[in-house]
UniProtKB/TrEMBL annotation:
Residues the record lists as N6-(pyridoxal phosphate)lysine modifications: 66
Protein name as it appears in the record: Pyridoxal phosphate homeostasis protein
Organism whose genome encodes this protein: Oncorhynchus kisutch
NCBIfam families: YggS family pyridoxal phosphate-dependent enzyme
Record flagged with keyword Cell inner membrane: no
Gene transcribed to yield this protein: PROSC
Length: 304
């Protein structure tokens, strides 16, 4: 009788595991759905507060899913979201090629938002549903991406959307082009990289900036670089996007002109970094207090 009982228990274990997994997925679905809805609302409200002098380009929300399982991407997709971002080439390749994501998310649009080394370009450009590379930080890298895209997608005339990453804070720990090289690099892409579509400028900026000190200087620097690019190369402002703003500052970024914000932990929860005790820098950034928010309401920010 005892062996029969053990046998029954053993048979029931997979069912218990399935039930637990099912309950986790339902809970996870509800959490991701609520968080995503709340962020979309905040994005729309911030866009409504933008000065009328800024181009009326609806901001794009890129849900950054790094370190998160495919199930979470699928849940956000089922809630209507389409733009997702990854920081690491290998993780993006794995996720974008995941059979469940390929089957469940046919209209997904992947953004690469991490540092791109030349030896990883071919691997990245083979990603299914690659929508945009936001981190081109030199003319040489642009040339490599351009030639690889021409070779890999020879049968397609569709250009690859790219952004030029600018190191607005001047920190050695940050990647990106020195601000003074922006115009010449964009000019090179427009004239020499026929397989690429120049979509705009991107910055990460300094972590932990306190908005009580005024508008974020990194965002202001990117606005100035856009003004300079458009004036020098005769480009309409509304045709040059600005990718700036993350979980702790995306509303301010939108208010001053961002058209593309990259939000991860606020949608998907804290990230799981194996073997790293310190949290993501994004989580350590200062969140503006209510007092700071009131100060921000009195700040008028325009293109320079």
């Amino acid at each position: 009788q005892s062996s029969t009982s053990r046998s029954s228990v053993n048979r029931s274990l997979p069912l218990v595991a399935q039930c637990i997994e099912g309950m986790w997925k339902v809970g996870m679905s509800e959490e991701v759905g609520k968080a995503l809805h709340a962020v979309v609302d905040r994005v729309n409200q911030a866009a409504a507060r933008r000065p009328k002098t800024l181009p009326a380009v609806p901001p794009r929300l890129v849900a950054v899913s790094k370190t998160k399982p495919p199930d979470m991407v699928i849940e956000a997709y089922r809630k209507g979201h389409r733009n997702f971002g990854e920081n690491y080439v290998n993780e993006l390749v794995d996720k974008a090629s995941n059979p469940q994501i390929l089957e469940s998310c046919p209209e997904i649009e992947w953004h690469f938002i991490g540092h791109l080394q030349k030896n990883n370009v071919n691997k990245l450009l083979g990603v299914p549903n690659l929508f945009m590379v936001e981190t081109v930080d030199s003319a040489k890298l642009a040339d490599k991406v351009n030639s690889s895209w021409q070779r890999l997608r020879a049968a397609s005339t569709q250009k690859l959307k790219i952004m030029v990453q600018i190191n607005t804070s001047g920190e050695e720990s940050k990647h990106g082009l020195p601000p003074g090289e922006t115009v010449n690099t964009v000019k090179h892409i427009l004239s020499k990289c026929s397989a690429l579509h120049f979509s705009g400028l991107m910055t990460i900026g300094r972590y932990g900036y306190d908005l009580a000190d005024g508008p974020n200087p990194d965002f202001q620097a990117l606005l100035s670089r856009r003004q300079e690019v458009c004036a020098s190369l005769q480009l309409p402002l509304e045709d040059v996007e600005l990718s700036m703003g993350m979980s702790t500052d995306f509303e301010h970024a939108i208010e001053v002109g961002s058209t593309n914000v990259r939000v991860g932990s606020t949608i998907f929860g804290n990230r799981d970094y194996p073997n790293t005790p310190t949290p993501s820098p994004e989580r350590k950034s200062k969140v503006p207090t209510e007092e700071t928010a009131k100060k921000m309401e009195r700040l008028t920010v325009t293109e320079q």
